[in-house]
Amino acid sequence: MYRRKHYAKLIAHIVRPGDTLKKVARQYHATPLDLIVANQLQHLELKPGTVLMVPVTKAYYEGHLRF
């Protein structure tokens, strides 16, 4: 059974040529399954230009905020 993590929020990612679920998930400290569930994906192949909603955790923000 898939257990959802606690997410701070969803952010939009526009799929670029060469993007894969694994690559996009890694970029945002998520998992491919997180992306599949958040976007209710039926197919695992991503098409350039598609907007994916990416659930991100506090860990993502801690690594990307600059003061």
From TrEMBL:
The protein, known as: LysM peptidoglycan-binding domain-containing protein
InterPro entries named in the record: LysM, LysM_dom_sf
Regions that span the bilayer: none
Native species: Nitratifractor salsuginis
Residue span, LysM domain: 11-54
Gene3D superfamilies cross-referenced by the UniProt entry: LysM domain
